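Look at one record.

>
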Amino acid sequence: MLQANALTLTHTKDSRVLIRDLSFTINDRQKTVIIGEEGNGKSTLLRLLHDPALVEGYIEVTGTIRKNGMRSGYLSQELTDEELNRPVYEYMAEMPGYAETTPKELAAVCRQVGINMDMLYDDRPMGTLSGGEKVRIRLAGLLLAEPDILFLDEPSANLDMDGLIWLEEYLQACRMPVLFISHDETLIETCADSVIHLEQTIRKTVPRSSFHRIPYAEYAARRSDALVKNAQLAEKERAEFRKKMERYRQICQKVEYQQNTISRADPHGGRMLKKKMHTVKAMGRRFEKEEANLTKKIDVEESIMIAFDESITQPAGKTILEYRLEALTSPDGTVLAKNIELQVYGGEKVCIIGRNGMGKTTLLRKIREALSGRTDIHAAYMPQEYSDLLDFALTPTEYLMQRGLERSRVRTYLGSVKFTPDEMSHPIGELSGGQKAKLFFLDMILSGADTLILDEPTRNFSPLSGPVIREILQDFGGTVICVTHDRKLMDEVFDTVYALTENGLTKA
């Protein structure tokens, strides 16, 4: 059993509180997901729970953590450069417990993670493995030390469809408790039976942390219902209060008028009006107190208050893309796929999936090149690697002002997607992946694009932001060509899904 009580995490550099007063208990076989926007302390919390030494020097911690003798296995979000260059067999040889593990025990671990034991002796550098291979090898390394609980930081980040399905099955069958971070909603809905939610509200000045011993899907539904009811109640109270205030102003104006027009020859009437005005002012003070106690709308991070222009449409019969490619090759000349054909018509929403390393991003770049010279459409491209298009030295404000917009208007738009004033004026390179993704969406919206070319557009959005992005793309009246492994996005947005294979594109 893992217990945390009244945990508060504060940045030592700027005294910003990341997590305040968080308490939870993780029991045997429990699968708990940590959700929240980037920068809210998810990875920091996971490192702290595994080994407090990992956060020493930059995080001040109050509260208590009791692991009750549990040994933890920790899968970090990324391998170091040194680890990426290390051959698989050397990486495994340095894992705690490897030297003491018998061949029979090694074989059992390999069965758990679904790999052949020969792979543990591979001389390929870790960095050359696919996303799924990396996760399985790293998990195997953790399991050699026989942990009692697993801490997994974004294990789904670079997995293709097969890898995601495998990870789901592994987590569901895992007999240990698991605390994990992921942006993949389907994985979370399938595996998480409890939720830790880390938020930064009111322009990221007030931390809010909570633990919920219910499955993620139930938590998300309850939260959504609560937000809707809160908004309805807040609006109802405001409407009733506005009516009261309107009546109050009418009374004030009437008494003021009577005071201004009463004859000096009527002192008794003047005194009565003075008392009446005193009563009216007392009523005003009561209304001031009442306004302060009105229900306020709950501040949430994922709110994105902007969408594509409703006037954007394309004729259904218009040819947006008619693309043929005999061979798709990697930068080193390796043929990845042959005989690729793709036709896309106005208003279609097309998704491309495929195994890691099949060349999906390469194909999408070629499609972008094919559409770049067109004058009858306006195409916008969102790459998987944001540095391909974003100048990280610019601030978000400077970047959007390149569209000829005034600074005040740009800042209004950025505020609508939850940028703080501080984030608006810092270099883009210092933003979280989620904020960079929001900046891309905002730029595409402001550009007036009627054709979107998107490479893993939701990979950096939190699970609670995902539904907002899907709704924006559902309502978009133009054409979308997208590469993704996001199953929710596939199911809810796209008309057609193609799988990229060695023999070209086939309908999935």
